[in-house]
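Re-running ABC transporter substrate-binding protein to confirm reproducibility after the cluster update. Everything else is unchanged from the original entry.
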Amino acid sequence: MRLTTALTLVLLSGTAVNAETLTLYTSQSPEIAQQTVDAFQAKYPDIKVEWTRNGTSQLLNVLRAEIEAGDVKPDVLLVADTINLGQLKKEGRLMAYPQAPVGSYDKSTYDKDMTFFGTKIISTGIAYNTEKAKPVETWSALLTEDNKGQIAVPSPLYSGAALNHLHSVVNVPSIGWEFYEGLAKLDIAPEGGNGPALKAVASGLAKYGIIADADVIRAKAKGSPVDLIFPKDGVSFITEPVAIMSTAKNADGAKKFIDFLLSKEGQELVVTQGNLPIDPSITPPAGFPKLSDIKLLPMDADNAVATDKETREKFTKIFGG
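Result of re-run:
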């Protein structure tokens, strides 16, 4: 383990530096990232993976500094959401990989220009405290006076999943900006990320929360009084996409890494790690619905990049920022 840049990242790597070294930047947790790298290297023992992990925002800050210095280190990125990759794509910093084995995967899980590819489904649904609240069927059903001040909402100005959710639902007629305006009328103040929102619901401080699926399902399995609703009008989702940098020194190794993540073996690893696979033929983890049983709300990453500034500004205005 060693330090790499001024922003103190954790670097876990093979020690050999040669033509077959693959450099990965990822926002996966250290435990999950180690599992991913170990599984890949078991399949490709001749490729040594050097990997750095941190939150997506921190990783992108480092990458921006490297771009400015003309010394881009990663061959491949595996991060939380598509908006950041959409921005890199717009700047021409991602390599297209038309031969990526997307098979029959839902087209909403990968870039139409084949520059980045979703590896799993992490949806955002409605969590509720089973002792204080009843399940609802739609997003708008939350907007009742009984729920005033009782809905925990992560802020899209802080959380990548919440920002993805915002961009996804504002263009859905049955949800739209009216949903956020309704939350504001109920004195809801979005803040922080998924963790604090889940704690608020689990403790009973909030009756409902807008939270990522796996967090709720794991908490329920551990005995927390929470459950998750997948509203019938759809759920937003992030895909933990993977992409090859246009400056990649080991593009062939990066393509093999993508091939592995999209393969049946890679998708089975996703299940082992406790997330919903994008391969609909693979049985999801316990507690998750089948992919075919939920309605996914796709997000146009190119449009999200183009409208991100005005979307954030409108959100801030609604909640009195």
